[in-house]
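User: Predict the structure for this protein chain, please.
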Amino acid sequence: SGVESIDNEDLFNETEILKFPEKRSDRRMSEISGKVMVQTRRKHGLVEIREHIQAISNQNIINHAQLQTLLSGRNFNLILFDLFDEQGLGILDQQPWFGKLKYWTKANPEEKTKDAQNKLDFIDLIEAITYLVCKENNVTPEHFHKIMSTKGVSNKLIRVLNKDTETKVEVDDLMSFII
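Assistant: Here is the predicted structure, written as structure tokens:
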């Protein structure tokens, strides 16, 4: 009456099946994927920074008051903070951050020019304000906003960006500094 099984050969035996490893939710991201993600986040941040700058600028030029307005904005500072916070930890260790600022400004203590002194003055001001705000602790986004929106920061930054004595700076020069 049909096909019969001999010796229970068509019974399901769980021990003989192929088992796949369970999917783990704590899987680590590859190093390359992590770098790509950081670069994508950085590009997006730079686009947002440029949009903020262009929204406030007149004919691709920013004056001192406009720069102060930008540096006082929480959203602008959060985006700028994220550019420094490459790992996305939500904190900045002070010494590496100061190192990045020195790299960005190309500050050289050996140089004795007015331009070099302006760069060093800017870094010194940021370091002093950071100490007053954070003491020895890491910089948080809220601390970063307090530091960057402090009176005098925009003035020193304009001096770094503009070699002339004018109080205006081109949007491209500001973006070159940030990049």
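The longest strand covers residues 61-63.
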